[in-house]
Amino acid sequence: MNPAELSISQLRAAYQSGDLNPADAINSLTEAIVAKDDAIGGYLSYDTETALAEAAAADISLPLGGVPIAIKDLINVKGHPASCASKILDGKYTAPYDATVIRKLREAGAIPFGRANMDEFAMGSSNENSGIKPCKNPHDLNRIPGGSSGGSAAVVAANTAIAALGSDTGGSIRQPASHCGVVGLKPTYGRVSRYGLVAFASSLDQIGPLTKSVEDAALLLEVIAGSDAKDSTCLDEPVPKYSEFVGQDIKGLKVGLPKEYFAEGLHPLVKERVEKAIQYLESQGAETVEISLPNTEHAVATYYIIATAEASANLARFDGVRYGHRTSESPQDPEDNKLIYHYKHSRAEGFGDEVKRRILLGTYVLSSGYADEYYKRAQKVRTLIRDDFSNAFEQVDVIASPVAPTPAFKVGEKSTDPLAMYLADIYTISTNLAGICGISVPCGTVSEDGSDLPVGLQLLGKPLGEADILKVGAVVEAGQKS
Ligand code: GLN
Question: Whole-angstrom Cα distance, residue 134 to residue 122?
């Protein structure tokens, strides 16, 4: 038994039976990382020594006792680096506190192990925007793993992690999960605390699990979910025992199929895999209903106004004054304002191109004279998109769709065309605009150039409907094995 290859539930069972102990898991993961991660680039750093010390003290009777979890590099773990894959923080910032999700993981006995690569400040869909190093898809090293939680998805897929946490602002958990063939769940906005998550777009961001099975996603979610006095947007609602919904039947459950998500632009083989998974749900007693989400065509534009506006405000804190990269240049011209010079140069040197593009775009849509035309209008359209989902959920229990229009594309294929990359977010971003929950569950592979590339089925649920999508997701997963 190679511990690195196990899921959370398998690892826990091996601990309980005495076949393995937490140090075995850390050692096995370290060996796997040494053997594979140079080629994949899933990790920005990892600290075996600290993890082994925590493993020695682990209480395996706790729900996640001794289970190592890889953490996307924008979630604060006390004493560990958090670079957000940006040169502005790389080597210059050590988290002084634990994010709430990390506190909850620790209380459940888990061991945060390894900092997962990502697109810089979570901006991107391919990991090509990582300011530190690229991350590749373990199923084909010439292809992208997806993004922005590409590292989190890649390390789970490559068995260099047991499970991981990522964040999803517009699809960043579900899309890399789909491309890497793992399970990825974006919780309802407010289900999981954002305290200690470096903010990209605060009204859209959510932390969630990337795992080897639907059951593992449920196990992680039931630990990290729940109210938090440190995040006022976090909902004070009871946390169900999500894992109990895994294995339940779906007879009579209504599954909505949004016609706008199966239209032009969807790769025919991705469509085929997704439709096959939906047919399987029908064979298990679900009823499918065609629905419409008529404002889908406005989702990409709306998202890229709201997300960039919020990002431009959130990223203002990286100014080279209190922490992070500080320019070594100083003004030559005595007329230059020293402080402004310092800000400009520190930020110009520290941020990558995509981050700069978003800050510029966000500042523009918020600027006086344009805010009404762009930002306020986008907020109104956001309400329409939310209403589309509320109407749909009056007819159905969950919504099924593709996650991404194509399988993982080749490295470099879209990096010179940011708009093409933005447009590929079409099936995932409305979820965040509406604040609802979604999951990607592997539903087969598509062969391209000799590689078998994973495809995910997306299941969207009502606000706080995580139990529904986990239940249906587990049926999809069982169908893949049957
Ligand atoms: N691909 C989207 C973007 O680039 C989503 C990112 C995310 O969810 N963090 O903004």
Answer: 14
Where in the sequence numbering do the catalytic residues fall? 72, 148, 172
From CA 444, how far away is CA 440, in angstroms rounded? 12
- Express as a percent the part of the chain with pLDDT over 90: 94
Q: Give the total residue count for the chain.
A: 482
SS3 76: coil
Neighbours of 348 (CB within 10 A): 11
Closest ligand 1 atom, residue 167 Cα: 9
Domain residue ranges in the chain: 1-482
Give residue 416's pLDDT: 86
Backbone φ and ψ of 342, nearest 5°: -60, -45
- Which parts of the chain register pLDDT below 70? none
191 phi and psi angles, rounded to 5 deg: -70, -35
The span from the CA of 67 to the CA of 220, in Å, is 11
* In this structure, CATH architecture of domain 1-482: Alpha-Beta Complex (3.90)
Instruction: Please list every protein residue whose CB sits less than 6 Å from any atom of ligand 1.
Output: 122-125, 148, 168-172, 200, 307, 425
Distances (CA, A) of 275 to 120, 170, 262, 407, 461: 34, 23, 10, 15, 18
Tokens standing for 97?
């506190």
Determine the atom of ligand 1 nearest the C-alpha atom of 303: 10
**Helix, strand or coil, per DSSP, at residue 442:** strand
Sole residue written with tokens 């789909």: 178
478 with 404: CB under 8 angstroms? no
Ligand 1 mean position to 10 CA, how many Å?
32
Angle among Cα 219, 204, 87 to the nearest 5 degrees reads 90
- 126 Cα: distance to centroid of ligand 1 (angstroms): 9
How many CB atoms sit inside 10 A of residue 397's CB? 21
pLDDT at 101: 98
Q: Where are the beta strands (DSSP E) in 46-201?
A: 68-72, 111-116, 164-168, 183-186
DSSP code at position 97: S
CA 349 to chain centre: 27
pTM of the model as a whole = 0.98
Using the structure block, give the residue that is written with the tokens 């016609």.
Answer: 259
Residue 131: both structure tokens together: 């300011």
Ligand 1, residues 72, 119, 409: which to mutate, most atoms within 8 A of Cβ? 119
Residues 194, 207 contacting (CB under 8 angstroms): yes
Do strands 164-168 and 111-116 pair parallel, antiparallel, or not at all (unpaired)?
unpaired
